[in-house]
Write a structure and sequence with these properties.
eleven-stranded mixed beta sheet; alpha/beta; 13 helices; 306 residues; single chain; binds pseudouridine-5'-monophosphate; Indigoidine synthase fold; globular; binds manganese (II) ion
């Protein structure tokens, strides 16, 4: 048996792949652990529609009944959204246990990349990647997403990473691991809710066709994954200082309550949502949709170049 023996690709996604049409992978931890119900379901549906609007086929990825699924039915999407935190948050090391138990699993950026690669999908849209947590020099809390970007042949389109992470350290680890971070229309690493972080990127491209060309070349060279950093649109952004206070409060709450390890990111997301009266969620939804549109454009350009 091999990894692909556990894959179940929907007929629509399979047909698109066979015909060399553009496909965009989407993750599901953002549905189960990243947003509350019902906004998680509405967003998951809108993001799929945005991918279609951009001329690509969406392949939302999750683990259901012992199968690695690429392309979900509407009922499966709803099931994931309703289960929320009752579903497992599945990172690389959780894959085998979850397949054996048959539990429902939302896939993180790391596992979504693995399943996308196995399915033959090269472009993936998400909100923000996991990274190096603040205080990692004490806790060693560094997301498995970074390791996966280093080794797995998938391009991930994100709005940077939330400043609940240590962004300079996150960029350092990506550099160490040889992951290109490409700014789409920006010279700076975007900070999720805010367009800029003050951290300069080495690579900037303003056209999706150029980004597709870089991704294709990186894949040809066998160098692993690519991170495309696409800033939140101006009209949706939350000013850096305003959100920063809330993030600091959320981190202090997590410390006080002793929240750590895989529970930390979902806890912080929920706490920031509460502390901003839901404003963080509005921005989060807008940026994921923006990433889906850009990812579709890149996927179309990639498939045209094949
Ligand atoms: N960042 C967000 N929203 C999310 C996540 C990260 O702004 O929903 C999720 C993604 O699925 C990411 C995961 O892969 O959290 C990272 O978790 P950890 O730090 O435990 O690796
Ligand atoms: Mn972690």
């Amino acid at each position: 048996m091999a990894f692909t023996d556990y894959l179940e690709i929907s007929s629509e996604v399979q047909a698109a792949l066979t015909a060399n049409k553009a496909v965009v992978a989407l993750e599901s931890t953002i549905i189960t652990h990243g947003m509350p119900f019902p906004q998680n379901l509405e967003t998951a549906r809108q993001v799929e529609a945005d991918v279609r609007g951009g001329g690509a086929v969406p392949a939302t990825i999750a683990i259901i009944n012992g199968k690695l699924k690429a392309g979900l039915t509407s009922a499966e999407l709803e099931h994931l959204a309703r289960e929320g935190h009752s579903a497992a948050k599945v990172s690389r090391r959780d894959l085998a246990p979850i397949l054996v138990s048959g539990a429902l699993g939302g896939t993180t950026v790391a596992t979504t990349m693995m399943i996308a690669e196995a399915a033959g999908v090269g472009v993936f849209a998400t909100g923000g990647i996991g990274g190096v947590h603040r205080g990692a020099e004490q806790t060693f809390d560094i997301s498995a997403d970074l390791e996966e970007l280093a080794r797995t042949k998938v391009a991930v389109v994100c709005a940077g990473a939330k400043s609940l992470l240590d962004l300079p350290k996150t960029l350092e680890v990506l550099e160490t691991k040889g992951v290109p971070v490409i700014g789409y229309g920006t010279d700076e690493f975007p900070a999720f809710y805010a367009r800029s972080s003050g951290l300069k990127l080495d690579q900037r491209f303003d056209e999706v066709a150029e980004i597709a060309a870089v991704i294709a070349r990186h894949f040809d060279l066998g160098l692993g994954g690519v991170l495309v950093a696409n800033p939140i649109l101006e009209q949706d952004a939350i000013e850096g200082a305003a959100i920063e206070k809330r993030i600091a409060e959320a981190i202090a709450d997590a410390d006080r309550q002793g929240v750590s390890r895989k529970d930390l990111t979902p806890f912080l997301l929920q706490r920031i949502f509460e502390l901003t009266d839901g404003k963080s969620l509005v921005a989060n939804i807008a940026l994921v949709r923006n990433n889906a549109r850009v990812a579709a454009g890149i996927a179309v350009a990639l498939s045209a170049g094949k």
